[in-house]
Structures are given as C-alpha cells and as structure tokens.
C-alpha cells in the first residue's frame, strides 16, 4: 500500500543485553537510509583515552582514504585537501577523541548511474556526501530522547558507551565531471571548485549538522516527521517519533514554537499497538497529529520559516527550495541570508571559481576563518567545545559538556514478554 519503505522495526530480542538504540548510515549518498545495528554497552577503559588537542596543531581526525581512480597525483592532492580541512576543524573544536573518517574519492556517476540531475529546473551535479556513520539514542538534558552522532558521543567522555562503529563519518566525493582546484594550483579557474571547502562542509554534516526531519511515508514529500521507530513484539508494534540532536535547536517562524515541542505533540502513538506498518500509517495520516507534519512541511518550503536558535544567535535554515529536497532543504544555512557573510560555509550550494580563502574574504575576513561565528555557536550548542583559533593563547571559549546521559535499551526475548514492561520507553 505504501510504496516507500520508511520504518525502522526493532524486534525485542532475547536475553539481557544492555544496549543503546543505534542506527547506521552505510551510504553517504543516501542520508535517509538507516539500519538498526546492535550496539551493546562497552566500558573498556582503553577505548576511552583522552587524547585532547588543547595543544595546537594536532590533527584530531583519523582518515582512511580510498582513492578509486588511477591518477595518483590527484589522489595525493585530494588527501592533502582532506588533511587541510581536518586541521581547520581541529583548530576550531577541542576533540578528546580522534574522529575516524572513511572517505572515498571515486567516480560516483558510474557507481550511482547518474552524474547530473535536474532540480527545480536547474541542472545540478553531485559533488559528494557525508554523514555520521552511526547515531545513538541518548536521553538529553531536557529528558527527551534524541539521536546523537557518534563523533559527539565520543567527546562526552562517558566511561560506558554504546559500541562504536569503526568510523564516525562516512564521506564520498565525486572524481568525475567536476574540475577541482587545490592550493598548489595557482589561480582558480571560473569553472573550478575548491575541494577543501566541499570537504569541510561535508565533515560538518558528519559531526551532526543534519536534521531527522523528512517524509518517511510518501514518495513525493508532503509532510515531515522525525525518525519513525517501531518496536515489535508478538502482538504488534509500538511507534515512536524521535528527532536528532540538531532538531533540538530548531524553531518555527513566526510563532517561535520549538520543533522539539512539535515532535512531542506528534509522539502520541506509542501507547497503542498496531498490527502492521500500514495500520499505523493509516492511523497517523488521518490523525490530528498529521496536521503538525504537514504544517512543518509547509515551513520547509517557505523562505525564512525555520531557524536554529543557539545562544543569542538565530540562524535561518534553507527553506526556499521547491520542491523540497531532503538532501538540501533544512540541513543548511539559508543561501539567501548567508551568501557573502562569514557563515557562508553551510549553504546548500557553492559558486564555482572561488577559493575557500576568497570566500572568507568576501564574508568580511572573519578572524576565526571559514567556520563562521553562527556555526561555531551552533556547534557549541550541540555539545562540542569550541576553541578560539584567532587568539594565540590556548584557552577554549567554552568548556561546557552536554549533560546528555546514555539511555539503556533493553533487548528481551519474546518468550519473556512479561519482562518487556521493564524495558519500555522511559
Ligand atoms: C584510525 O582508524 C583505523 C581504521 O579504522 C583504526 O584501526 C585506528 O585504530 C584508528 N586510530 C585511532 C587513533 O583511533
Ligand atoms: C568505506 O566507504 C566506502 C564507500 O562508501 C565503502 O564501500 C566501504 O565499505 C567503507 N569501508 C568500511 C571499512 O566500512
Ligand atoms: C580531556 O583532557 C582535557 C585537557 O586535559 C580536559 O580539559 C578535558 O576535560 C578532558 N575530557 C574528558 C572527557 O576527560
Ligand atoms: C488496524 O487495521 C485493522 C484492519 O486491518 C482495523 O480493524 C483496526 O481498527 C486498525 N487499528 C487501528 C488502531 O487503526
Ligand atoms: C556577493 O558578493 C559578490 C562579490 O562581492 C557579488 O558579485 C554578488 O552579487 C554578491 N551576492 C549576493 C547574493 O549578495
Ligand atoms: C507487547 O507489548 C505491549 C506494550 O507495548 C504489551 O501491552 C503487550 O502485552 C505485549 N504483548 C506480548 C505478547 O508480549
Ligand atoms: Zn550540505
């Protein structure tokens, strides 16, 4: 009945394995494709060494680089561009743990069947994609469960944590159809793209700059919900709506209502058991809560209708694109508002023919470089510790560590169904 496969179903599984609820994103080009994975709690101390880069000039990223082309010179240049982008992030954020990246530079056109596509009448080209390899459900300091990116969970320094995936960030960049510019190349040509800027942008998505909001029920998007999580036992399933850390800071213009509050109002289906997905979907689509989802969608396709609030900053998100594009809408700074500003980096599109350095200059030569003041404030809200790279002293401008606590997800056997209540949602 519903052509889209949209729900994540978890079978409550035998024995008392204490685990968090983890979702993996194996394909960086399909950000909306998530798989449930087993991630039991781990308390090993050696996994928890505190490396810390409070001392400057340490690259806190651990790059596994797969170069899928034969041009070794180009491979080397791409690798150097990665290292340069990693250093920019290492100078901006205090990491206690290395961030592992699985990055691939290859012909995406061949692997994915198409290089260019038409969006809103404009021919667009895929340059790359990246996202957190794994997200973990954590009870946030406001008592709400949200999916945290693994790279952030690592920095929190809890002794016990859900089993980590080998990589924190999966990234892929297209070797075909784009002419890249590198620092050692001299002047940039009008048709070239500074790959370092693209990499920096994508790594920030990988650190958690990504909403959960999407239409998980229709092929043509017309409503928005956070992740839909189903929990099965023999008599049926319960369904929850759960957002990402990013969504905690979103709110709606002009009412100022928080998206977190809207998600809370939507998440009222978990007390009822549904026989199957269609049963739940049908119920949801005809419920008053569905209006919340369609209202949210109308915000996502109207300019200046969704913001991120962090500290005193208001960041307008990208809500000008029609039709809605799950890869570009919402999870970016508004193009219209942030072009030629110091917060140019997280716009959904970049113009060719300009280097990262030139962008910084066009944005007013922000002292801390390409990671602009609003983005820095937001990364701080997410839970990262931000360093002041403009000053020479090695003090950080923030030492807050989010009070997020790990929630334990209990997997039980269906034969021990009477125990399930002790593992129900908290
Ligand atoms: C770097 O990544 C590789 C591959 O995943 C891993 O084997 C290694 O332990 C990592 N190093 C650190 C310091 O995390
Ligand atoms: C790294 O990413 C590539 C491309 O996304 C994927 O094919 C490969 O399996 C990944 N490697 C590991 C060790 O996960
Ligand atoms: C890691 O070490 C740094 C510097 O010594 C310290 O400021 C930070 O609080 C430590 N973090 C954790 C999670 O232990
Ligand atoms: C689930 O579907 C069945 C028919 O397939 C229907 O009788 C029942 O009322 C539905 N339950 C809910 C809660 O919608
Ligand atoms: C940004 O600045 C450039 C050069 O200063 C100018 O050509 C361009 O029109 C500006 N764009 C916007 C949207 O203001
Ligand atoms: C399945 O879980 C629901 C609560 O979500 C519970 O009321 C019901 O008794 C459980 N059924 C079985 C067979 O365990
Ligand atoms: Zn992006």
UniProtKB/TrEMBL annotation:
Domain of life of the native organism: Eukaryota
Official protein name in the record: Sequence orphan
Keywords (A to Z) from UniProt: Signal
Signal peptide segment: 1-19
């Amino acid at each position: 009945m519903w052509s889209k496969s949209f729900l994540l179903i978890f079978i409550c599984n035998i024995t008392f394995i204490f685990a968090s609820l983890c979702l993996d994103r194996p394909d960086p080009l399909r950000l909306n494709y998530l798989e449930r994975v087993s991630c039991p709690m781990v308390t090993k101390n050696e996994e928890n060494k505190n490396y810390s880069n409070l001392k400057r000039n340490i690259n806190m990223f651990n790059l596994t680089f797969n170069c899928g082309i034969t041009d070794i010179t180009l491979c080397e240049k791409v690798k150097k561009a990665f290292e340069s982008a990693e250093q920019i992030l290492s100078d901006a954020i205090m990491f206690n743990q290395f961030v592992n990246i699985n990055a691939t530079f290859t012909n995406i056109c061949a692997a994915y069947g198409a290089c260019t596509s038409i969006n809103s009448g404009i021919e667009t080209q895929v340059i790359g994609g990246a996202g957190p390899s794994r997200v973990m459900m954590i009870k946030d300091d406001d008592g709400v469960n949200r999916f945290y990116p693994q790279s952030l969970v690592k920095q929190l320094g809890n002794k016990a944590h859900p089993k980590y995936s080998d990589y924190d960030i999966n990234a892929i960049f297209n070797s075909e159809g784009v002419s890249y510019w590198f620092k050692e190349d001299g002047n940039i040509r009008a048709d070239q793209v500074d790959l370092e800027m693209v990499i920096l942008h994508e790594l920030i998505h990988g650190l958690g700059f990504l909403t959960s909001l999407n239409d998980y029920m229709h092929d043509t998007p017309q409503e928005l919900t956070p992740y839909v999580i189903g929990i099965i036992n023999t008599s049926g399933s319960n369904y929850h709506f759960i957002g990402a850390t990013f969504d905690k800071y979103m709110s709606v213009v002009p009412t100022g209502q928080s998206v977190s509050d809207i998600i809370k109002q939507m998440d009222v289906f978990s007390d009822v058991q549904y026989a199957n997905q269609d049963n739940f979907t049908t119920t949801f689509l005809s419920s008053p809560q569905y209006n919340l989802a369609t209202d949210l969608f109308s915000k996502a396709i109207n300019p200046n209708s969704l913001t991120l609030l962090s500290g005193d900053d208001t960041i307008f998100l990208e809500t000008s694109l029609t039709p809605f594009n799950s890869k570009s809408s919402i999870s970016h700074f508004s193009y219209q508002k942030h072009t030629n500003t110091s917060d140019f980096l997280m716009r959904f599109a970049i113009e060719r023919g300009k280097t990262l350095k030139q962008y910084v200059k066009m944005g007013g030569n922000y002292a801390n470089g390409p990671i602009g003041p609003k983005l820095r404030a937001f990364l701080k809200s997410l839970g990262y510790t931000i360093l002041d790279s403009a000053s020479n002293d090695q003090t950080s401008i923030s030492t807050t560590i989010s009070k997020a606590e790990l929630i334990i997800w209990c997997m039980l056997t269906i034969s021990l169904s009477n125990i399930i209540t002790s593992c129900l949602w908290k």
